[in-house]
Please model this.
Amino acid sequence: MLRRPVRNWASIWKRPVRLINCQKKTGMARQLHARRLEGVDKNIWVEFTQLTADYKAVNVGQGFPDFSPPSFIQEAFCSAITGGASMHQYTRGFGHPALVKILAKFFGRIVGRDIDPMEDFQITVGAYQALFCTFQALIDEGDEVIIVEPFFDCYQPMVKMAGGTPVYIPLKPRKSTGPALSSADWVLSPEELASNLNPRTKAIVINTPNNPLGKVYQRDELQMIADFCIKHDIICISDEVYEWLTYDGAQHIKIASLPGMWERTVTIGSAGKSFSATGWKVGWAMGPGNIIKHLKTIHQNSVYHCATAAQEAVAMGFQREYDTFGTEDSYFKQLPAQLHKKRLRLAECLRSVGLEPVMPQGGYFMITDISSLQVDLNDPSTKDEPYDFRIVKWLIKEKGLATIPVSGFYSPEHRGNVQNYIRFCFVKEDSTLKAAEDIIRQWSVKK
Amino acid sequence: RHRNKNSKCNLYMASVTHKNAKRIEGLDKNVWITFTSVAADPTIVNLGQGYPDIPPPSYVKEGLVQAVMVDRLNQYTRGFGHPTLVKALSQVYGKVCGRQIDPFKEILVTVGGYGSLFCSIQGLIEEGDEVIIIEPFFDCYVPMVKMAGAKPVFIPLRLSDRKTDISSADWFLDQDELASKFNSKTKAIIINTPNNPIGKVFTRNELQAIADLCIKHDTLCLSDEVYEWLTYKGHDHVKIATLPGMWDRTITVGSAGKTFSVTGWKLGWSIGPEHLVKHLQTVMQNSLYACPTPLQEAVAQGLLRDYELMGQPDCYFSSLAEELQGKRDRIATILKQAGMNPVIPEGGYFMIADVTALNQHLSHVEDDEPYDYKFIKWMTKEKKLAAIPVTAFCGEESIKHFEKYIRFCFIKQDSTLDAAEAILKNWNKA
Model:
């Protein structure tokens, strides 16, 4: 029985031929890969990081800082490394005790409840793995998962790999205002949300602050989603990796802190994004013990442990942030203040060449409509791709500037409608932003 | 358990169903969770869980400090493996295997050997498949195969007739029995050499017999070789992937944690042909995307250093094995003194011992558990010595064959072994 409609009949009759070729090359006649991998083999990051490296482009594409992490966090890691033999051996699989304890304290203070460090946390290899554990633990074949578009691209293949069916609800510009030039102008429709519910709906995934748009969901927006989850007994997966990065007075609110939501929410966090050290790959899933226990089962049967010294260092970082929270010394306060300026600077540059950036209320990224760009695209290798993919590849190859096409953050079903946006990451050194600006200003723009 | 600050929450809890996905049914128990709580008690001499309490080589730790101080090494690296590391792995294993290994297409860096097993099984195994697992086996193979929806098929290592001075070489696979386990559904066989817990180092002939069956039945081989450097005098590690016809159907798993005595770094790798590794890479890109950068850089530097020293006494790959040989022999002696019958391992850092001769009555220990579980609980409480029950490493049907065995880990400092010796010497006194 076919799992999805066959779009390309040619692929059917080609199959036996491919199998024979496979046999000649591999000496194996049987199908090698597990079917769970079907349709999830492409990855935008693998493709674009390679291209960026090949062309040595100015990288305002992938979301990582190119400035140094705060020295206290690097020192914390060094201190952990030289801190005794146990730092180099296995720690507790579900999370290094020092780390889960400080996270429970830290977030307990924020959400206003006692969080159990041993029961309510699973430490993971980055927030990415927390998302993986969550989907694998909770989603079965046929379960539906509502994903708010645009979304961090991994949600879709992860839901698919778990046998689930993604259902997409778009953030859309409010009709009443003019051009939607702030991420706040992009909203969810409660009617659309409700109409996409059915008996198999198991979970909804939200990301606030949002990648790529930068939207920071307001309390009433989260309440609307909470009401929906409570009414229909749905789990909320809340990806909050950019939680400290809000600008212009926008406040990050944890949906898990709304009444009735702790019991049904898995909140995802990231040390990499919190401390500008994305290469450490330490993240967590936080939630009620009766849900987290299922993530633990996945974790103990997939990687089991995360690196001890890295967890110890993150624990030290969080202790410092706990002690300095809200003060000028807090990195969680300093970083958004730094990034606020970079964000304004990039927006100004884009506007100066006639582009229309969507000002993000939070996060690492800014998207901009590029329809007014005059570009002579004559790269035959990209001719079947969406327009934004073509533009981005042209920019990398011809202009040495790396960005990311926004249709990559939309479902295959809706990708065609959103081919005019590209995403910039402004969490970069001033010299990188300057180099990007110099390239941008050279474009000719016709309205 | 939670002191709910908002009383409304209690109303909502009852209505929440939150059923877990079927793939984890029955997989929540784990032998390590039961036994690692023991490790926390400082009065207990812990020869249980398999990690060193000896320090890692200093150049490895220094390498990590250096990596952390380089800003860009604190950010994302290539998902399938940090370039410096995959190139170093390609060099080391290229030399060991005697073939060119493409660092980008034939290697995947994973979260420990454990993560390699996971990517391999998720990438290549599915519902309807059978996977042959040799008992006793590192316990995670079974839940991983089950989570992938497949059926584990067991075959035990069997002890020959030998009665004294037993070594892991006296444990073997019955060839007819092995052949009978293969059928058209057999997608893969998992082998572990050197084996945990017995310490068996499969000989070339034994591996050839397995290879012949793999080729005959068009089966994949997942070869867990995390202890590859730890073989003792007279025994050589053989890579099944180097046997004719096997490279194209084998994934070989290695571990930085076991290689450099840094189990807490959780870095490992899968090496194999592109047409297999690419599927593991797909799992990787959809599960955790990349491993930590500074740790990968440090492992790369360690590998490059020891690559230059390969064949020389200074090379950590061989100097660790030498150091452990002495500990192995020492532990064997003191276990015998207590009246246990150890199985001398040819490789790895574990030793199993038969406790039958001690005739320890355990009917007073309630629990409907195999003998070795009861023995361990008794020994931990009464003798303050921890080990691991070997039936944790076998299927239900083989419990009778293994329940008189317990596993000791000997990659421990002399002071730990001294403490163990004191306990074992006094075993029979009150």
Observations:
- The CA atoms of residues 174 and 185 of chain A lie 6 Å apart.
- Chain A has 14 helices and 15 strands.
- The longest strand of chain A covers residues 201-207.
